[in-house]
Design a protein that fits this description.
mainly alpha, single chain, about 200 residues, about 45% helix
Length: about 200
């Protein structure tokens, strides 16, 4: 990131742009983490920051999703593109076609690792849509007052973290807004995807 590191002016400009973009994506991912915690605490659950040790058990994810530590290379990058690809891409769109052609999942888990699943999903966007449907069904069945029982004081908000889109989840509308923010920023965007970090 310095002039004395042997980069041309164009290369230096490019690496600085990449750095800004990666930092921007990391900030969005931290926002997504905070919003997910707000979704959990809104319905009375505790925050979930723990993680199982790698390798993860096969029953934790659908058969097409592999969670493992990977080096940052073309294979891992293509897998992330595959997982976060936008919903309903118009394949006549040359930009979309170019991006999706670069998307490739990791190979499926071995057959002997596949266990029963309550639900299957191919993308992160599909998972978030399923969560949204779950909130709708629970609110319909229980009513919003009985569903959103978590204390507002347990919610992460802009005063806690400098993330402009961070908002409390206290009802169905704010739960939808949180999920929309997560999805539209890059986890399977439904509409205009060019601004998503996909």
């Amino acid at each position: 990131d310095r002039d004395d590191e042997g980069l041309s002016a164009d290369q230096l400009d490019a690496t600085r742009r990449w750095r800004r973009e990666l930092i921007h994506i990391a900030e969005q991912e931290m926002l997504h983490l905070a919003l997910v915690q707000n979704l959990l605490t809104a319905i009375g659950a505790g925050s979930a920051f723990e993680r199982p040790n790698f390798p993860l058990p096969p029953h934790a994810y659908p058969a097409g999703i592999r969670m493992e530590l990977l080096g940052f290379d073309e294979t891992s990058l293509r897998h992330f593109i595959y997982l976060e690809r936008p919903d309903g891409l118009d394949m006549a769109d040359q930009d979309a076609l170019s991006a999706v052609e670069k998307a490739a999942p990791l190979p499926r888990a071995d057959e002997d690792e596949i266990g029963p699943r309550l639900q299957d999903f191919d993308t992160i966007g599909t998972l978030y849509r399923a969560i949204e449907i779950g909130f709708d069904r629970l609110a319909s069945k229980l009513g919003e007052q009985r569903l959103f029982v978590g204390p507002r004081s347990a919610q992460a908000v802009v005063g806690h973290f400098p993330l402009p889109s961070l908002a409390a989840v206290t009802d169905l509308a704010s739960a939808h807004a949180a999920i929309d923010t997560i999805v539209e920023q890059g986890e399977g965007a439904r509409g205009e995807w060019r601004t998503a970090h996909f």
